[in-house]
Write a structure and sequence with these properties.
By secondary structure, this protein is an all-alpha fold. Helices cover about 70% and strands about 0% of the residues. It contains twelve helices and no strands. Helix 1 runs antiparallel to helix 2, helix 3 crosses helix 12 and helix 4 runs antiparallel to helix 12. The radius of gyration is 16 Å and the shape is globular. This is ACP phosphodiesterase.
């Protein structure tokens, strides 16, 4: 899962939502020194990722990608799932998505003291460039994936992943709609 899905699924506190993103930035972080709700968010993040990585619909989605790009299918799906979450928001929530996104951005900006420097830089860019709303557009998903490809430190064939996403869009969306309600239930029961 990517950042929007993590904060959407996280326990409903600001610190847990911060922790749900911190789950991607824990290297070198002494989790014991963090507030309990932040740690709970990190644990929630790990549970969500573990459930996602094992789910049959996610595994089937990964198999739709060509052999040359399959290694990066999980990264592509994480970002794509934020797009599908926004597209089908009201199937999963009664909240207005724009209100939710602005609340999360405010929480991230006001809790940078809880974040390691790398996370603080990323969340600052996230807010400034409104990443969550950008994910409404499939073109922006493609651009985000190409930026990820450019940061990979070894030769790869990840760039242009959006072409395969477009080729399998309907199947990927159907798999997401099978998978996400189950993930939402597991996340709520955490």
């Amino acid at each position: 899962m990517n950042h929007l899905a993590h904060v959407f699924l996280a326990p409903d506190t600001a610190q847990a939502r911060v922790g749900s993103i911190l789950g991607d930035f824990t290297r070198g972080v002494e989790l014991e020194s963090l507030p309990e709700e932040v740690r709970r968010g990190v644990e929630h993040h790990r549970m969500v990722d573990s459930f996602t990585d094992r789910h049959d619909s996610v595994l089937a989605s990964k198999r739709l990608f060509s052999a040359r790009r399959r290694r990066f299918a999980g990264v592509a799906l994480d970002i794509l799932y934020d797009h599908f979450l926004l597209k089908h928001w009201y199937a999963f929530s009664d909240q207005d998505p724009d209100t939710f996104i602005m609340k999360v951005y405010d929480e991230l900006e006001s809790r940078q003291h809880l974040m390691p420097p790398d996370m603080a830089r990323v969340t600052s860019r996230m807010v400034t460039h409104d990443w969550f709303n950008a994910y409404r557009s499939l073109d922006n998903i493609g651009q985000a994936l190409d930026r990820v490809a450019a940061r990979i430190r070894f030769p790869n064939r990840f760039e242009g992943m959006i072409l395969e996403i477009r080729d399998h869009h309907d199947e990927l969306e159907a798999y997401f709609l099978e998978f996400f309600p189950e993930l939402e239930k597991v996340a709520q029961d955490f």
